[in-house]
TrEMBL record:
Primary location: cytoplasm
NCBIfam families attached to this UniProt entry: uvrC
Species classification: Bacteria, Pseudomonadati, Bacteroidota, Cytophagia, Cytophagales
One Gene Ontology biological process: nucleotide-excision repair
Species assigned in the record: Rhodonellum psychrophilum GCM71 = DSM 17998
Occurrences of domain UvrC family homology region profile (ranges): 308-496
Pfam family, one: UvrC_RNaseH
The protein's assembly and partners: Interacts with UvrB in an incision complex.
Gene (UniProt): uvrC
Stated role: The UvrABC repair system catalyzes the recognition and processing of DNA lesions. UvrC both incises the 5' and 3' sides of the lesion. The N-terminal half is responsible for the 3' incision and the C-terminal half is responsible for the 5' incision.
One Gene Ontology MF term: excinuclease ABC activity
InterPro entries: GIY-YIG_endonuc, GIY-YIG_endonuc_sf, GIY-YIG_UvrC_Cho, RuvA_2-like, UVR_dom_sf, UvrABC_protein_C, UvrC, UvrC_RNase_H_dom
Highest rank taxon of the organism: Bacteria
Name this protein carries in UniProt: UvrABC system protein C
């Protein structure tokens, strides 16, 4: 067996192993395994890899699964029953086993192994490999295209770095192929970026490549997190030009130095004595572990990330944390020699300097990391275990804003629709627990009102709605919302008084123009904060009622227009036209219908007249 060491990112390693003879065992042969560090793989009867583990002693660790019957949890016992074949790889140290295990799990993702719940594709900044290199964000890593810096845990953090670089240096953003031949042949012209001072025009040969590459070198230091190098460079340039009495140029570099200092101040600077290190803290519950990672570079936090690990086989906190340490350092390419954690490890790992600080700034960093892990755990609990509280949060806010006695988990809203008094209709929409209950929506034809009288129409539909609910002994809403101001609200109140239920159901009106909330018998409206979730809910309910009414009105007018074209046919009246449209939905489909299907709806005599009329219209058109 031989092993080869290869670099992965910056300072992380994985191992490629070649085994002359495959080291395969059955569960009964577990006592024959070597007493050496390594990685073991369990396969089931279908030759599927179900678990990958590491061990300081392969013999002791693997044998424990089959000889130890007490203390194993249900999931572990279930896995053991599935094992049919064991494959091992011997390595030089437990740390080597840890790295190999990590890479095998990432590649194969066995179902009994701990997996990081994080499927994001993180962004990088790419420094291209071309004449006059560019720096731009990307999520795809293509070998040979250039140097990738990152990944960044957030788009915002990446954009802050990119914005800083573009503020400090004149690096081109165009995609032109700036090889010496094309520049010499004057193939290109400077763009707006040149005139804005963001680029010095290398495309026209106005900036030489050595000068451009000098700026790229300074930008690379920022991408690596080494802010001290460009800061020292700007200071040196400032002093140099000041001595030469070139004060404008000196001020130019002073501004850049101050910009860099301002950016550095935004990072949480820990202590000048702390250089590069990684901080990890773990917080667990019965099913998961939450691990926060702080990456410290030259005394400043340059990256923070929290992940969730689902427990699979009743793993200990140290096992879970160790898994997270290896994977997060690998993912974010950390080469820090020192690692701070919040729990003690039972054993030491050669190659990992893991400590639990007791005092000072390092202890404060671990406390900060733990605070982030606990916050993430709390957020997850709110998002899953306390969904009900989250669902009712807006309703509780609405209850408070409107001073309601009960939670408004059943809201009904009314709206009218008519154009110049034609086809007056109304709609009622229903929201249960803050969500639309579409099956409870209702349309109303206005029956007792002539002309465009919104007030009288509102009295009619509100009265009809709650008269029916009372007759059918159905539940009344906890809040009635009227789309309109004082007039529509007063009309609705009148309907409730006639039914004897005024005062039993809270009722409000919402005016569109200023989003004012009106209460009965109160001349002053209520103004809810425009950013309030409760107002947004009321607006959503009001808009839904308006949409539902408008749609109904539009469909009605469309149907009437279609119906009028049918009623012009001799022998076809409004009732017959309505039957046809109800059955076939459109005049076009009526024309395409068979004689038999038409006869089934309106009878043979009317069907014959209809078909003959369509033939006459077609003949006249020809």
């Amino acid at each position: 067996m031989t092993s080869k060491k290869s670099s992965l990112g910056r300072g992380c390693f994985f191992y490629i192993y070649s085994i002359m003879e495959a080291s395969f065992y059955t569960p009964d042969q577990s006592n024959l395994l070597p007493d050496q560090p390594g990685v073991y793989k369990y396969y089931n009867s279908e030759n599927e890899l179900i678990y990958v583990g590491k061990a300081k002693s392969l013999k002791k660790r693997v044998a424990s699964y089959f000889t130890k019957t007490i203390g194993l949890n249900y999931k572990t016992k279930k896995m053991v029953k599935e094992i049919r074949r064991i494959e091992i790889t011997i390595v030089d140290s437990e740390f080597d086993a840890l790295l190999l295990e990590n890479n095998l799990i990432k590649k194969t993702q066995p179902r009994y192994n701990i997996l990081l719940k994080d499927d994001k594709t993180y962004p990088y900044l790419l420094l291209t490999k071309e004449p006059f290199p560019r720096i731009y964000p990307t999520r795809k890593m293509i070998q040979g295209k250039g140097i990738y810096y990152g990944p960044f845990a957030s788009i915002r953090g990446m954009n802050n770095v990119l914005e800083l670089i573009r503020s400090l240096f004149t690096i081109r953003t165009c995609k032109l192929d700036l090889n010496p031949y094309k520049i010499g042949e004057q193939k290109y012209k400077v763009c707006l970026e040149y005139h804005l001072g963001n680029c010095l025009g290398p495309c026209e040969g106005l900036q030489g490549e050595p000068d451009y590459l000098n700026e790229i070198e300074q930008a690379k230091n920022i991408l690596k997190g080494n802010l001290g190098v460009p800061k020292a460079y700007f200071k040196h340039q400032m002093l140099k030009y000041a001595e030469m009495m070139a004060f404008e140029k000196a001020q130019f570099f002073k501004d850049k130095m101050e910009l860099l200092e301002k950016y550095q101040a935004k990072s949480l600077v820990t202590s000048p004595s702390i250089l590069d290190l990684d901080v990890f803290a773990i917080e667990t519950d019965e099913k998961s572990a939450y691990v926060n990672f702080l990456k410290i570079k030259r005394g400043a936090i340059i990256l923070t990330k929290t992940v969730e690990l689902k427990k699979k086989l009743d793993e200990t906190d140290t096992e879970l944390l160790l898994t997270a340490i290896v994977r997060l350092r690998d993912q974010f390419q950390s080469d820090a020699q020192e690692i701070l954690v919040n729990i003690d490890f039972e054993e030491e790992f050669e190659g990992l300097n893991i400590t639990v600080p007791k005092i000072g700034d390092k202890k404060k960093l671990v406390e900060l990391s733990l605070k982030n892990a606990k916050f993430y755990k709390k957020e997850k609990a709110l998002a899953s275990g306390e969904v009900q509280d989250k669902k009712f949060r807006v309703l509780k806010q609405l209850q408070s804003d409107l001073s309601l006695k009960e939670l408004p988990d059943h809201i009904e809203c009314f709206d009218n629709s008519n154009i110049h008094g034609t086809n007056p209709v109304a709609s009622m929409v229903c929201f249960l627990n803050g969500k639309p209950a579409v099956k409870e929506y209702r349309h109303y034809h206005i029956k007792t009102v002539e002309g465009p009288d919104d007030f009288a129409s509102m009295t009619e539909v509100v009265g009809r709605r709650y008269k029916r609910l009372l007759e059918e002994a159905k539940t009344l809403p906890k809040l009635i919302v009227i789309d309109g101001g004082k007039g529509q609200l007063s009309s609705s109140v009148e309907a409730l008084k006639q039914l004897g239920i005024y005062g039993k159901i809270p009722i409000i009106g919402i005016a569109k123009r200023l989003e004012e909330i009106y209460f009965p018998e109160d001349q002053y409206p209520l103004h809810i904060d425009k950013k309030s979730e409760s107002l947004r809910l009321l607006q959503r309910i009001r808009d839904e009622a308006h949409r539902f009414a408008i749609t109904f009105h539009r469909d009605l007018r469309s149907k009437q227009a279609l119906g009028s074209s049918l009623t012009e046919i001799e022998g076809i009246g409004p009732e017959t036209a309505e039957k046809l449209l109800k059955q076939f939905k459109s005049v076009k489909k009526i024309k395409e219908a068979s004689v038999e299907s038409l006869e089934a709806v309106i009878g043979k005599s009317k069907a014959d007249k209809l078909i003959q009329s369509f033939k006459d219209i077609k003949k006249a058109g020809d």
